[in-house]
Amino acid sequence: MAKRFIFALIVLLLPLFTRSFSPDQPTDRRLLVLVDDLAVRSSHSIFFKSLQSRGYELEFRLADDSKLSLQRYGHYLYDGLVLFAPSVQRFGGSLDQAAVLDFVDAGHDLILAADSSASDLVRGIATECGVDFDEDPEAVVIDHIGYAVSETDGEHTLIAADDFIQSDVILGATGIEAPVLFRGIGHSVNPANTLVLKVLSASSSAYLANPRTKLSSPPSLTGSAISLVSVVQARNNARVLICGSLDLFSNRFLRYGVLKSGSSKKHDKSGNEQFVTEISKWVFHERGHLKAVNMSHHKVGEEGEPAMYRISDDLVFSVEIYEWSGSSWRPYVADDVQVQFYMMSPFVLKYLPTDEKALYFTSFKVPDVYGVFQFKVEYQRLGYTSLSLSKQIPVRPFRHNEYERFIPAAFPYYGASFSTMVGFFIFTVVYLYNK
């Protein structure tokens, strides 16, 4: 009896100690931060404090801690993972590459920062997320034109990057005001992969190479094909940030003034702090997270949803869409939301106007085709979580007693029938009584 009581108590209390992503409260709150050295906690304290000031609970652990685990009794212990351990060869405890990928597949978020010491484990995680670091472990990003003027850097590996993605939802409406300092390794993304987006790209004069050796062959990556920071939004709306520079998040780079080569304007402070703050808001769903609720439909003049429609019925369709602001849901306003009335292919495709209070609605006539249809709302927009909703409804033809008594389009057939009858009657009379 005592064992049963303890087991029941654990089952009841476990949800209180474990948290997972909630559609009604999508902002991740409990984050696991894995580091190579606990000194990163102080050298990158500005970034961590910015997360804590926004309500996040950070748990710092060494990446090779023997007690590491992301889940317990089938429940995930954390909502997000910050992997600041580029040189780790093997995770501790039950954590491995497959566990990290399963964590993302379960809908959780990941920030991964690498550098020139990136291990095969870290590179493997990035590859599985759709990002490929250069095979040469010594190759770093070099830019002899777009470098940051510095007294301590003569190899032009300290870059002042300002080629940002044009997206207010990912980087904020104000935009990044100063160039971002970057020192590290670059990566490439497959242009055919629509899930991966380059957030910060290198300039056209950049290339990947070992600064301590002379180039003997053309660089593997050059120009804007080099991505410095990329993000991935998976089909389950989990978000991943991959960066080739751990220093980009450091206090030194966040406080450092920046003067880009060839520019006369010196910024007293780099754009790193603004950049990492804005991008982390997006990664952890403080921006760009949508939900759709109350999808409904009914006949014009009625209120309840019918069990089926008849061809040529007039109907009204509506759905409510909200955006998470980091603390509450607010109406999402856009002019590109569509509804499909779908059976094998869309028979009706209409844009949904909005009342700017989250309600999207339209009306249309059921097509003159009967079968099993679906109302489908599939919405994908850069930086926002995707929406995919559907509701099935059958459409029947007219019953035999629902047609009009006389159909105007059939008047020629009516005339032909009656004229045939009259002609036959006249023929019969003439045939029988004519001698």
UniProtKB/TrEMBL annotation:
**Ranges for the OST48 N-terminal domain?**
30-283
User: What region holds the OST48 middle domain?
Assistant: 297-435
Instruction: Name it.
Output: Dolichyl-diphosphooligosaccharide--protein glycosyltransferase 48 kDa subunit
Superkingdom of the source? Eukaryota
Signal peptide start and end residues:
1-20
Membrane topology, as annotated, equals:
Single-pass type I membrane protein
Quaternary organization: Component of the oligosaccharyltransferase (OST) complex.
Record function comment = Subunit of the oligosaccharyl transferase (OST) complex that catalyzes the initial transfer of a defined glycan (Glc(3)Man(9)GlcNAc(2) in eukaryotes) from the lipid carrier dolichol-pyrophosphate to an asparagine residue within an Asn-X-Ser/Thr consensus motif in nascent polypeptide chains, the first step in protein N-glycosylation. N-glycosylation occurs cotranslationally and the complex associates with the Sec61 complex at the channel-forming translocon complex that mediates protein translocation across the endoplasmic reticulum (ER).
Q: Which UniProt keywords apply?
A: Endoplasmic reticulum, Membrane, Signal, Transmembrane, Transmembrane helix
Single Gene Ontology BP annotation:
protein N-linked glycosylation via asparagine
Q: Tell me where it mainly resides.
A: endoplasmic reticulum
Chain segments annotated as transmembrane: 411-433
Assigned GO CC terms: oligosaccharyltransferase complex
Q: Name one Pfam family in it.
A: OST48_N
Which PANTHER family does UniProt cross-reference here? Answer: DOLICHYL-DIPHOSPHOOLIGOSACCHARIDE--PROTEIN GLYCOSYLTRANSFERASE 48 KDA SUBUNIT
**Family per similarity comment:** Belongs to the DDOST 48 kDa subunit family.
Subcellular localization is given as:
Endoplasmic reticulum membrane; Membrane
Q: In which pathway does it act?
A: Protein modification; protein glycosylation
